[in-house]
Amino acid sequence: MAEQTRKLVLGGGTAGVVTRCRDFTRRALADWHWPAGAEAEEDVLLLVSEVVTNACLHAGGPRELVLRHAPGGLRVEVTDDSPEPPSPRPPDRARPGGHGLILMERLARGWGCVPSPPGKTVWLELPGPPPPGRDADPDAAGPDA
Predict the structure, then answer these.
(1) Does domain 4-88+97-131 have CATH number 3.40.190.10?
(2) Which of 4, 17, 19, 20 shows its CA 20 to 30 Å from the CA of 60?
């Protein structure tokens, strides 16, 4: 299978953009036969929400969302108009939010940021779902294994 790409041009702004991006991603994953409601799909949707929300909070909203599906995984790219790269803020249990980069570190296979004048593109890569009938973690076999 060759890489398949989907692009959603957003043009900046923040109203309803997270929902639009999640819906766009959900449709693409369904077209690519990712199991709906599975952990792999939920991880993708959560991270899309996080990176798009960060663009809304810190960069005036995303310009575009690009999904690149290839054998073995998915690459998500969100481009905005701010040249400032994402930076973690110190944990503060008294304030909501601030956990997006921690989630990306834990759930994504990798992530980063590249200049995309006038702003940047934040990207992340996730593994694809396990083949049907296989557990995501081969070491998680039950006692009857």
Answers:
(1) no
(2) 4
